[in-house]
Fold this sequence. Notes:
Chain A is mainly beta. Helices cover 0% and strands 51% of the residues of chain A. By secondary structure, chain B is mostly beta strands.
Amino acid sequence: DSGVTQTPKHLITATGQRVTLRCSPRSGDLSVYWYQQSLDQGLQFLIQYYNGEERAKGNILERFSAQQFPDLHSELNLSSLELGDSALYFCASSPGPSGEAFFGQGTRLTVV
Amino acid sequence: DQQVKQNSPSLSVQEGRISILNCDYTNSMFDYFLWYKKYPAEGPTFLISISSIKDKNEDGRFTVFLNKSAKHLSLHIVPSQPGDSAVYFCAASEGTGFQKLVFGTGTRLLVSP
């Protein structure tokens, strides 16, 4: 158990809908990272938040947004969902703005 | 453009033998490399890392070798155990920061008794 909690574990939704994925970092960790793993793909970095502020941005679509709240949990919002958004979404956390991070179990999103 | 490539999607090895997982990269600015292991229904877990100032790093049964001129790294597991059966991801970054790690597509290792 990495200490990073992601909910829900599974999510099935229809195209065009909006979903919110939630991540609770390890106790004391200030950084949260979001990654997407599509079928047969490596993990793709989406975005990083550090202590409530956006710190780094990867290949995140404009339909996707994220935020980190004062209690340091983070949410990834995916809107106008398409079939191609079906993937595993991982959250990771680390104590500081860089350095080793620990992954949660992931949320498997299926868009039908 | 796949900057980090793991060309073998799967590898089967017998228990007690050596497992060698390979990874190639194209970005010469990468200077920090990591291996992650992933079991089904779990997130990736950090295994071992190496910075570009070294060519070898060892941790118990796991050794990572880096060949900068060839832009190639490998993970050796000796001896392999059935519990090592998992998907192994290679990852690379510019600097030791975790952000913007670039991952390969993974190699599924099966260690049979």
